[in-house]
Amino acid sequence: MKVDKIIFATGNADKMKEIRMILDDLGLEIQSMKEAGVAVEIDENGKTFEENAMIKASAIAQKLRKDGVQAIVLADDSGLEIDYLNREPGIYSARYMGEDTPYAVKNANLIQRLEGVPDEKRTARFVCAIAAVFPDGRKFTTRATIEGRIGYEERGKYGFGYDPIFYLPEYDKYSAELTPEEKNCISHRGKALEEMKKVLRQAAE
């Protein structure tokens, strides 16, 4: 069974840049759903990042099978967990305060909710789960995290989403202050994709 492309279940252009950089050495064409012309209504009703990632990947894989397309489908579900806020926004990170709400507004809200909370209680992490579905039906998931704290303001010109408020004590930088190359080496998505690369290579043998 020849597979020459990966279709990633996202329409996020910033995310696709990261994904292409990280998966570049697989030697496969990497397309977003939009680029592949795949339009599927997906109800992300899972209770974990892994479940939601697999729901997305499976729905697209099913559509591709009907269309006779031989491609590996990858999907991610990622989010921010803030310990002081009972791990909110968690799996609802993209939908927190509404999907169309600008992240500057979401970030300001989270900082406000943590007003007066000291550094040691502002612990948080980014979580990313990657799901893969092969044309023959095989399924795999990987998961990775990066630990940090919620800062007191937005900082940095790189990244997207919650990156400007996520402080990394180990590097004395906010996630949005890391260059794309630096971020891909240590980020939750970068590490989860690196693990998935190992899975994909083993599965192709």
Strand content: 15-25%
Task: Give the overall shape, derived from the CA principal axes.
Answer: globular
**CATH topology category name:** Maf protein
Which percent range fits the helix content? 25-40%
Please write the CATH class name.
Answer: Alpha Beta
| Overall tally of domains | 1
Order of helices and strands: EHEHEEHEEEEHH
Q: What is the CA-CA span between the terminal residues?
A: 12 Å
The tally of strands reads 8
Runs in which pLDDT lies below 50 for 5 or more consecutive residues are none
Q: Quaternary status of these chains?
A: single chain
Radius of gyration: 17 Å
The CATH architecture is: Alpha-Beta Complex
Structural overview:
The chain has 205 residues and is α+β, with helices and mostly antiparallel strands. It has a single domain, classed as Maf protein (Alpha-Beta Complex). The protein is 32% helix and 24% strand. Strands 1, 2, 3, 4, 5, 6, 7 and 8 form an 8-stranded mixed beta sheet that branches.
